Structure formats: structure tokens, C-alpha cells
Amino acid sequence: MGMNQGWNHLGNMVAAIVAMMLVTWIGLYAVFYAVTAVAALAAASVFAIRPSELDEKRASGATQEDGTESIGFCGVQTETTSKLRFARSEWVSHGEM
Predict the structure, then answer these.
(1) Distance between CA atoms of 96 and 37, rounded to whole angstroms?
(2) Is residue 7 domain-shared with residue 29, that is, in the same domain?
(3) Which of 46, 67, 72 is nearest to 57 (CA)?
(4) Residue 21 — pLDDT band, cuts 50, 70, 90?
(5) Residue 51 has what DSSP assignment?
(6) Would you say residue 44 lies in a domain?
(7) Does residue 54 belong to any structural domain of this protein?
(8) In total, how many domains does the chain have?
(9) Own/partner pairs for 88-93, CB < 8 Å, 24+ apart?
(10) CA-CA distances (angstroms) from residue 12 to 7, 82, 83?
(11) Helices 3-25 and 29-44, interaxial angle, to 10°?
(12) How far apart are CA 17 and CA 20, in angstroms?
């Protein structure tokens, strides 16, 4: 198991222990308040990202190394037939949403 995954598991365990302690001390509604607080902190963490560290092209995969567009229909990459087949099957199975 990688180091990153180990820290991920530790964070999950700490969150579960804190949730159990909050429920014990405050009651069941404490979990909902805690989730709200964590969600607000996660949303606020977006403001900690420096604009100079963002690379929109690299993050979205919008261009290949030679600079040509690789985004296909509806944002699905369709360079290969297998990717297109997978995208179609996902669209058909989840299309009713």
C-alpha cells in the first residue's frame, strides 16, 4: 500500500472516531453539523489555490502534446474505438438520469 493511501486510511479512521465521540457527547445531530462544517471548509479551501498553479489544459486533457484537440462529442474523448464504445454504453445505461 502506498504512502498516500496509508494517510487516506488514517484520515478515514480519525474521522470515524471523531464522529463517534461527537455522537456520544452531543447526540446524533452532531454528525450532521460536523458534515456541514467539513463541507464548508472544503468549499473554502478552493480559495487557497493560487491561480498561477492552475493549468486548465493539463487538468481537462483538452489538448494533446502536439496541440491538437482531443475532446470529442459532449466532452468524451473519442480517439479510439474502445473509448467511444465505452462512452456509448455509459450514456445508454445512465441516459435516463
Answers:
(1) 33
(2) yes
(3) 67
(4) very high
(5) G
(6) yes
(7) no
(8) 2
(9) none
(10) 9, 36, 33
(11) 140
(12) 5
Residue listed under C-alpha cell 489544459: 57
**Amino acid at position 47, single letter:** F
The domain of 22 spans 1-49
User: pLDDT, tens digit, for every residue of 42-87?
Assistant: 899 888 888 888 877 766 665 555 555 555 555 555 556 677 777 7
Query: Considering the entire predicted model, what is its pTM?
Result: 0.45
How high is the pLDDT of residue 24?
93
Whose cell is 479510439? That residue is 80
Q: Largest Cα–Cα distance in the chain?
A: 59
User: Grid coordinates 486510511 are at which residue?
Assistant: 9
Q: Is the domain of 32 the same as that of 1?
A: yes
CA distance 71 to 81: 14
pLDDT at 25: 93
Which phi and psi (to 5°) does residue 26 adopt? -105, -35
Q: Assess contact for 56 and 65: CB atoms under 8 A.
A: no
Q: Check whether residue 41 and residue 13 sit in a common domain.
A: yes
The residue assigned the cell 452531543 is 26
